[in-house]
Amino acid sequence: MKEDLAIIIIGQIRLKSKAQIDRWEQIKKDFQRYDIYIGTYKSYGATARELTPNIFLLDDQKINAAEYLKLPDTIIANDVNKNTGFSPVWQHILLRGVLEKYDKELGDYKNIVKARSDSEFNIEEVIKTLTEHPEKICACTDFLFGSNSKLFKKMFLENNFLSYIKKVWNKDENYISINYKNLLKSFEDGFMMQWGWLCFKNLNEDITKENVIDLCQQNIENGADVNNFKTEDTNTKTKKSFNTAFSSEKQLLIYFLFFSSITRAHVRLVR
Q: For residues 271 and 268, what is the distance between their CA atoms, to the nearest angstrom?
């Protein structure tokens, strides 16, 4: 074990542009101090081995992610993710595969960070954030997220995000229980995940940070967690409607809040 951090790179290893190729080469240099785990498809296996032998490979799929998980058809007209085969869901399937395969090894690290090969971020800054906030989740949407290894495995191995997907599938516009206590704590740390994308109920004002903080304070005793959350087909307010059976960024945010508060990470995608 090189350092007390495991970095899990998930998804396609995108090398379609010069910028992405340069980023991949930079990753190979910058991450030499860390143990790397990769979850990707067999067609990227040779490229993944340039970086690490710790690889979970999934067959290249001819079916979409919803079919793979045996989910019902989307009921959303013109679902924005249907034409891409619900591609955002594959990252969660691959992450689960890595965690199941390397369960024992990953328990030895202090922290675990999940990233993408086409994401640009300062790993030292992420480590600093995790050190300063050891009980929090450091995240930037679903591009990058990390936490202490015990919490990471609690969220994605002891509990199963794929099971959560099945429970909220086709309910993306419904109200899904929010852990307001953890949301309020997240605001205290300069929270950057897209909190305005959540579906709020009982909010009679505009969706502003101040009004959502007031709502959190009114519902501070709400103890929603992964075992007792509910979905309600009721009137809600949101800053963004995704028109899909499952929005990865929004649902991951809700899921994180079941376990802890969130602090920010800075990430830029390389195109």
A: 9
Residues 113 and 204 in one domain: no
What single-letter amino acid sits at 188?
E
Q: Which domain does 17 fall in, by range?
A: 5-164
Q: pLDDT of 197-237, one tens digit each?
A: 999 998 988 999 999 999 999 999 888 999 999 999 999 99
Residue given tokens 């998980």 in the structure block: 69
Find the helix or strand (DSSP H, E) in which 140 lies: strand 137-140
Residue 271 forms part of a structural domain: no
Q: Are strands 175-176 and 231-232 parallel, antiparallel or unpaired?
A: antiparallel
pTM over 0.85: yes
Instruction: Tell me which of 118, 144, 164 is where a domain ends.
Output: 164
Q: What's CA 253's distance to the chain center, in Å?
A: 7
Q: Give the pLDDT confidence of 77-107 residue by residue, as tens digits.
A: 999 999 999 999 999 999 999 999 999 999 9
Q: Which of 73, 32, 40 is nearest to 56 (CA)?
A: 40
Say whether both 43 and 134 belong to one domain.
yes
The strand pair at 262-264 and 137-140 is best described as: parallel
In the listed set 114, 134, 164, which residue is the last one of a domain according to the structure?
164
Using one digit for the tens of pLDDT, what is the confidence trace for 16-38?
Answer: 999 999 999 999 999 999 999 99
